[in-house]
Amino acid sequence: MAKPSFWNIGRKKPVFLRLRMILLVVLGLIFSSSVSLLPSNSRLLAQKPSPPVGGLFYASASVSSTSEQVKAPSNTEQLMQQGKTLYQAGQFAEAAQSFQQSARVYEFQKDAFNQALALNYLSLTEQKLGRWNQANVAITTSLNLLNQLKLNTSDMKHILALVLNTQGSLQLALGQAENALESWQKAANIYAEIGDTAGKTGTLINQATAFQSLGLYRRTMRIFEQVKKNLDSTPNSLLKISGLRSYGNVLLASGNIDESQKVLEQSLALAQQLPASQEESSILLSLGNAAFALGNRNLLKDTINSEDNFLPSHCAQGTMQESDRPRDRSQKEHRFAISQRLDAKRIAQTNNAESYYRKATELYHKSANKSTLTLTAVQAQLNRLKVLQYLQKQPTDEDLRAIQSSLLNLTPSRGAVYAKVNFAQSLVCLTQGGGEWGEDKRTTREISNSPIQNRATKIQNSQEIIHLLNTAVQQAKDLKDTRAESYSLGYLGQFYEMEKQWSQAQRYTESALNLAQIINAPDIAYQWEWQLGRLLLVQGDRKAATVAYTTAVETLKSIRSDLVALNPDVQFDFRDEVEPVYRQLVALLLQPSQISSEKAGIKGEVSQKNLKQARDAIETLQLAELDNFFRDACITVKPKQIDEVVDNANPATAVFYSIILTDSIETIVKLPQRKELRHYTTDKPKAEVESTLEALRQKLEQRYTFRDREELSKEVYKWIIKPAIADLEQSNVKNLVFVLDGSLRNIPMAALYDGNQYLIEKYSIVLSPGLQLLADKSKRERFEALTAGLTESRLNLSPLPNVATELKQIAAVIPSKQLLNEDFTQKSVEKQVDSASYRIVHLATHGKFSSQQEETFILAWDGKIKIKELGEVLQTREQVVGRSSRVPPPIELLVLSACETATGDKRAALGLAGFAVRSGARSTLASLWQVDDNSTSILMSKFYRQLTRDPKITKAEALRRAQVFVLQDKGHPFYWAPYVLVGNWL
């Protein structure tokens, strides 16, 4: 078959933050009534957009007095107003034409000022359309015109500030955060000069957004605190209400859900005082989004990783999915099955997800009733419909008819197009069945024949879904909105994929992909590349499918910094629509070319090229998971020749890459001085793997378990280690590095048992989130340590009386500065790190690792230190470089000796990896569960003595000896196994 156009995509890396406009300059919401709605498959709940502060309505309101000085013909004024009206209606192509015509008329009249203003509006509109070159030409010309004029009035200076804001929004959209900051700083100076508090506040929010995109969270929050003060001192008005709502939306998008709720509730209270019905509706919509995000946050803790859906999951309950090991028709007929993804009732009972979802539906209902704008009401209705799916409840016919009626009344716009696509996706989900919370045990046939399903089908059958999507496509074409057209075509292709109409699905998918490439929209292009890969595979073209999947992963890598800004519900979206792309690629690459032995552990016929590509995909997935955890892409990646890292390591080191797929555990092993990678497959259903790992973790934490624990430990040993034993012995390997996936991260590899001895008795062991993140080797020198800890109870957590002994024993071995109890605060640690070049930081205090960064912390005397705050504290001295000619060395070792992973959080070990990476330390030593602090004191003392006595010993070997020492005394892994070394093992 002919190869579609995407095969020849250049490997440029355009960093377009299309949807970051939602986060950008949120004060423009104060005056804008335009709205935006993404299709449901993106899992972005509909909410008010945040156009730039230089937005059209805001600019026009500020320009009124200027227009009295700079008179223009009435027909030109009407043309400008027409453009503003079209912009607010979401008819961006028509608006662009109006502004372009206005600019030409003003140019002909030699009215440079109004020409600059029209070009400013044109740039904003072109940004909405994704036409970045045209947007740049327009704003550059606008600035050049203004710079040639004598701006001698406040109003004229105000317009210059608006244009600078527009330039900043474009620069940030193009990934030029530093340039955006410079533009916005100039705008802020102008606003300060002319006394425009509102403009200055909006520009501050712009700057905060840019700092956030650069990962400078301390600066971001400082600016937000100033913004909040400005708004708090502002009298109650629409300006203040909308400003707070915008601030709340930014907090929500950045993951600060609890703080977002507080700000939004403050905004709502003010709106109810005026009253301001439309603002109240918009705030209720945002509060609904916050409640939905809280439900998802609780839901995430009970799930391990994505279900590796063959299709992206846009349905909460009846998810159409396939194994993550794709099959072509010669192996297995492609099919879709209705699968219960989650035991929703259990999750609701344990994590309150249900209560948050119900709260969200109430807020959306109130928002729809309050709204004076049809599109806002539709947004609320569609969001409510989505949450009902999470509650596994069928909407009423009245609900569906209300949405249908509202859709018919929408003025053509991008928001209207997305609303139709969103509704079509929801209808697809409804055809898969309903029922109460996880209680529907009927078969697919029984669901199809039920009265509820028959009633729903009368309203939303396949023809209606196709009609909705075709209407969306045509409307996008009429609007000349290429981005919306690509979305509509892509989801039309996905629907035909669900219907197993492969040729139709491929035709629409290729059309959608072509449009996404034309407008350089990689954030949607990867979805259609992934979709095309699935379609090619199901039609038997594995080679082309592999290329498509590979292209999708490369596209995802090119927008690494954008993924966290694509929507406010990033983590849930990531696990449904990003993570499976990597997993399915790995599964596809590791399929043997021919059926190999059915015996587990026998290497299949997988090429070395495929093995290396699969290993790289696993490394990239590890990085993507951390980006998603932090909601930024500010982790420094140092591209390394992984083989060289292993081959040059001393002692001899082997690296294990293990990934859990639907029906197997796949392990790739890099051996020292061996060019070829080894590959082992253990055929085990994912459910059995997860159950075994969970049981083993529980037994390891119980002090009096023996036979059951040993049997479980031997089972996992057979999966991961046993197939490689002969290779390890032949290569004389002494050190094992594990790059682990999912629930495997919750198991200390040191505790794996071969029937005679534990793995730690034979090998030193280290965990790595990926060798691309491996810190460089350091020169061994005399270390000084900063030690800190708590012996007394704080925040109702138990006292740790042996911490004082632990710190004293460290001081006997290594020169140390000690901070105990009330001396141990965030500021005191920061001061010490800033003033001295400590190579070791040892924190003996309570801490928790969680899959949610907001719940990952260590405890100081004055409260919790969150993971990002700790990272900034430990890296403070990097900011001192400008004040000193000597660059301080990085922290060699961070020790967290009394931490634990969050109970009931199956992905909590991700928090440990996050701590290790964010701290900036070369190595991190931490505990997976809390141990008797006397045992901890003994192990830590032994570790430091080993480390200081032998200058050639590695940190991994020092830890191994300390663990074996405690093992020989205590025996049970509970006492010695939880301590894991992450990062550089040398």
UniProtKB/TrEMBL annotation:
InterPro entries xrefs: CHAT_dom (IPR024983), TPR-like_helical_dom_sf (IPR011990), TPR_rpt (IPR019734)
Biased composition (Basic and acidic residues): 322-333
Matches recorded under Gene3D superfamilies: Tetratricopeptide repeat domain
Protein name, per record: CHAT domain-containing protein
SUPFAM superfamilies the UniProt entry points to: TPR-like (SSF48452)
Organism placement in taxonomy: Bacteria, Bacillati, Cyanobacteriota, Cyanophyceae, Nostocales
Domain of life: Bacteria
Segments for region (Disordered): 314-333
PANTHER family membership: RAPSYN-RELATED (PTHR10098)
Pfam family, one: CHAT
Sequence ranges assigned to domain CHAT in this UniProt record: 711-984
